[in-house]
Amino acid sequence: MESRIKQRFNDFILAEARRRYNIAASNLHLLDGTDKDTTNI
Fold it and tell me: Is there a contact between 8 and 2 (Cβ–Cβ < 8 Å)?
């Protein structure tokens, strides 16, 4: 991940988004630049 993106988006922002949109932690998974996740499309 680019360092400027990594610096801007952190665990606090993720936690706030999860809270606002009622997303369970078990519904999240990390992707790297080569992952192609189409399971939720």
Answer: no
- Residue 9 has what DSSP assignment? S
What's the CA gap between 18 and 15, in Å, rounded? 5
**Which position has the higher pLDDT, 37 or 25?**
25
CA 10 – CA 35 distance, rounded (Å)? 20
Domain ranges within the chain, ordered by starting residue: 1-26
Distance CA(1)–CA(34), nearest Å, equals 11
Say if pTM beats, i.e. exceeds, 0.85.
no
